[in-house]
Amino acid sequence: ESNIVRPKGYTVSYHANPEMEKHHFGQTHPMKPWRLTLTKSLVSAYGMPFAMDNYNTRAATYEELKSFHASDYLDYLATAPPEDQPRDIDNPDKEVKFNLGGSDCPLFHGLYDYCSMSAGSSMDAARKICNKQSDIAIAWSGGLHHAKRSEASGFCYINDIVLGILQLLRCYPRVLYIDIDVHHGDGVEEAFFSTDRVMTVSFHKYQPEVFFPGTGGLDDNGPKSEHNPGAHHAINVPLNDGITDEQYESLFQGIIGKINEHFRPSVIALQCGADSLAGDRLGRFNLQVQGHGACVAFCKRLGIPMIIFGGGGYTPRNVARAWAYETSIAIDCQDKIDPIIPQHAPWREHFIHETLFPTLEQILGEPRANRNTQKRLQEIVQHVHEQLRFVAH
Ligand code: V1P
Ligand code: CA
Ligand code: ZN
Q: Cα separation of 343 and 337, whole Å?
């Protein structure tokens, strides 16, 4: 498409490793790395690569992974036998200790390669932001926000976001982490619990004991122990089923706008998990591609350098729609692209409705009941504003 040109005055980069998409978590597992192939094919069908710097990234090295993760965990991740091989009789309790091999975090073939490729793309994106070679760097294969220093969790083994933010902290004083995945960004929050140089903000479905991971209540704002500079620097926005575009946009702008004034981030790391979209296999919200994308557009308008990560997203056609649309927002061609999916797009038959913006009725038949009252959403904004009074500015 000849109308897709480089944006004027700033540079956008796209970081991906096509080898990563060939990995499989298993037949019944919701995480499908193939959604990255579908996303890339849609981005390409629209001609968007012409407007960006496109990097084929290398896998992160063991040393790079060690900047956040423990060596015994990485060693086991690198050597644990895949599920269909004989059990590792020398290490009977390591799978339990590291939470590897269950239904959420299976030990599949090529697992270590898969993890180091995801981390490699996110770290590459962070370095391009640090070097000022990119103003917006996109790493859709990252966003694996649940992984801990020595533990896998919720489909996440290596926390590429933490690794990326650690890179950013080498060159920028303050990082604002924003997480619009339907799940709580617990791994990133915990990693930066004790610093005031990173503020973490997660919007998520919150229903302890029912919805994974069960953390991220409104009052959880970082350990309030004495002399913890990180206190008040974790912001949580707990939501109920069925939130709409309109409510989410007003909540997002009210909260992120205020945080921007108080915290004055030098760079933004935005996790764009697409499981917050309506019709997601695991999600519970009623967001459409437009409302999800509006969060990216709002952050972009702040005019601060930004890394954009992927994350969850379990209905591949909707993941590809959202991330292709958000790529178009990054390069500022969202008003130029045809909402009808290009005739030559590979796997076009997967997009049951041939538009980038299916209606709620098209996605769901019957929309999910909205359990978020205006009163409760106002209380949440109020609470966040009160937290920010503790943040130096
Ligand atoms: O609910 C659980 C745990 C497993 N039980 C002990 C409770 N796990 C969830 C994990 C969701 C992970 C989301 C990751 C992300 O935030 C970032 C990439 O999007 C889970 C669910 C669920 N409905 O919440 N696991 C599975 N479903 C699952 C289903 C089939 C096969 C394997 C896992
Ligand atoms: Ca979230
Ligand atoms: Zn998620």
A: 13
The ipTM of this complex is: 0.99
Residue 189 and residue 332 in contact, taking contact as beta carbons nearer than 8 Å:
no
**Distance in angstroms (rounded) separating the CA atoms of residues 220 and 265:** 21
Tell me the pLDDT tens digit for each residue of 297-353.
Answer: 999 999 999 999 999 999 999 999 999 999 999 999 999 999 999 999 999 999 999
Query: Which atom number of ligand 1 is nearest to the Cα of residue 312?
Result: 19
In angstroms, the CA 12 to CA 7 distance is 8
Q: Which residue is listed with tokens 């933004």?
A: 268
Mutation pick for ligand 1 pocket among 29, 99, 155 (CB with most ligand atoms within 8 Å):
155
User: In terms of Cα–Cα distance, which of 300, 264, 301, 236 is closest to 172?
Assistant: 264
Indicate the pTM of the whole model. Answer: 0.98
CB atoms within 10 A of CB 21: 20
Question: What number of CA atoms fall less than 13 Å from residue 216's CA on the CB side?
Answer: 31
Tokens coding 325: 């649309």
